[in-house]
Amino acid sequence: xxxxxxxxxxxxxxxxxxxxxxxxxxxxxxxxxxxxxxxxxxxxxxxxxxxxxxxxxxxxxxxxxxxxxxxxxxxxxxxxxxxxxxxxxxxxxxxxxxxxxxxxxxxxxxxxxxxxxxxxxxxxxxxxxxxxxxxxx
Length: 137
What we know:
Blueprint: H1 5-26, H2 32-53, H3 62-88, H4 91-98, H5 101-113, H6 119-136
């Protein structure tokens, strides 16, 4: 059964929202470093189980693996910064500001992949930035 990309994105949104709140609560009684490591170990285990239980074969290329390593480096940097932010600030500020990562992805999409810049997309990014600024205060 094929699941809509939008449904999967909504599941990801809900899961990441729960993750952010649970991560904050965890860091109130556990070192942020320990909370981060445990969180990502469990996430990696779940991803491994998902891959092992899929009927499709696992395929990869050297370039794909190198890009995945680079993605992992940036994911690790983001995780350390996120948990360090939780340790020093409020959940509302850290999660809302870090949620603007999509603006970076959208800008890179325009620069690297020639994705079109439309008034609608600019408005969406602009409203998101305003929303995050309002939520972060």
